[in-house]
Specification:
Layout lengths: L2 H13 L12 E11 L5 E12 L4 E10 L3 E7 L3 E21 L4 E19 L4 E22 L2 E10 L3 E11 L1
Amino acid sequence: MKVRPLITAAAMAASLGMGTAQAADGNYANVQLAFANVDGFDNTMSLVAAYGIPVKQYGINVELELTKSLADASTSATYPFIGTVDMDASYLTLAGYAVYTMPLQDKLDLRARAGLLYESVSVSVSNPLVSASADGTDTGLSFGVGLSYAFKKDMNIVADYTIIEQDISHLAVGVQVPF
């Protein structure tokens, strides 16, 4: 599968109907704390770090993002003849996004993003008699929407809701620093 046409298509889809937008004036970095929802497990916390580069001719930014769960998402279930089974899951993603920003007010921007990601998930299952673990990787699409508020000249507060394929989503809040 060719990546370049998918990134171009994602950037175009993110920009439809958004009006006039502005790319950031320069490169920036984001650091966010995310409240993550892993399907079938309790919620957990993740750390999100991104580096953004403006692509002014298209009016977008391109972001490279790394997300890592800080604690295992966990759940348990009780089965006849087996007893209680505890399950834990952790994940790591590396994603590339096309980010389209539309000004809403003087200091407030709406952010829409779409991109491709690589996802690595580890799951462990245990009960008093036996335990097992498995690792898996996948690639897929990811989408998000959020807000950016210019808190200071050299710092923005950012909040994003991101869907990581079908099984993980997170709400992240943090800071963006231009340089």
